[in-house]
Amino acid sequence: MRKFILAAASIAALTFVGPAAAQSPIVLKFSHVVASDTPKGKAADKFKELAEKYTGGKVKVEVYPNSTLYKDKEELEALQLGAVQMLAPSNSKFGPIGIKEFEVFDLPYILPDLKSLRKVTDGPLGAQLLKKLDSKGMTGLAYWDNGFKQMSANKKLIAPADYKGLKFRIQSSKVLEAQFRALGSIPQVMAFSDVYQALQTGVVDGQENTWSNIYTQKMHEVQKYATVTNHGYIGYVVVVNKKFWDGLPADIREQLTKAMKEATEFGNNQSAKENDDALAEIKKAGKTEIISLTPEQDEAMRKAMMPVYKDVASRVGQPLIDEFLKETGRSPMN
Ligand code: LMR
After folding, report:
1. Could you identify the atom of ligand 1 that is nearest to the CA of residue 72?
2. Are residues 84 and 29 both part of a single domain?
3. 149-199 per-position pLDDT tens digit
4. Is 334 a member of any domain?
5. Report field, pTM of the whole predicted structure over 0.85
6. Which residues of 128-159 are buried (b: 16+ CB within 10 A; e: fewer)?
7. What is the pLDDT of residues 24-43, one digit of tens each?
8. For residue 34, how far is its CA from the centre of ligand 1 (angstroms)?
9. Which residue of 36, 147, 152, 198 is 20 to 30 Å from 49, comparing CA positions?
10. Ligand 1, CB within 6 Å, residue ranges
């Protein structure tokens, strides 16, 4: 795969805006791993529509959904090499390329609601985190929402003890690894596009994701139970290859910035509804029993996961965790 990325990168370098390409549009490849019919998929399509409109066709955005170009880890490599120009990986996926700070978003129950999330992403902390991307050859343009994660398995998951000994697919985040270890489960890192098959064949017993991802990947067809836990958050950082971005004519960069701002508002305003709609569809399909927790059961889950904060403090940074909690103004225990 690396060879393929390198070959694609050199073709991209050859075809990139040179004087001879003055008339041909600048191609911006936007790769992502989820279905088009999800919060990220819709925001990406909106960006394409607006970017092409505002640049009068000078930029052509090619959106590649559903891991058609690259799987999780490969897509960040591809971006750094210039084989694609734009991505929106989840916060969890920046750890493996050395930006561990984004894993703060993975801490269990750190975000009580989307309003608190905005305080972080729209404030100085959000900007400070985006700056960290520069050293990795990328520019952070926006934060896109998905929503809150739920747990699923072929076993009823109610109390922390129910998780003991089960294998759970996780994204490549040390915080998520610590979270499942705190529950006595066995976490297994796996690319998003491989999850359905792993659940179907029993390679893993369960997984955590948002309703929109569960529904569009048909995970509900191979999981008997899903519990409404809202225990964690999945959101994205829209990143662009820095060399590509800095090399764009200023007016084009401005038009793309405007398109990104509007696509972000569009996507973030409807992400919660997308997840609600997906849950309704899962219920309608009738293949998964949806379990709700009582306040006491919810508290037991929170309590079981609190050790994670200590476990990952040295990796993510205690000052960052403190600042994050200060911004949201809430404790993860309530
Ligand atoms: C996952 O790997 O579960 C998610 O990050 C997929 C996505 O991009 O929403």
Report:
1. 2
2. yes
3. 999 999 999 999 999 999 999 999 999 999 999 999 999 999 999 999 999
4. no
5. yes
6. ebbebbeebbbbbbbbbbbbbbbbbbeeebbe
7. 999 999 999 999 999 999 99
8. 7
9. 147
10. 33-34, 40, 72, 90, 146, 171, 192, 209, 213, 234
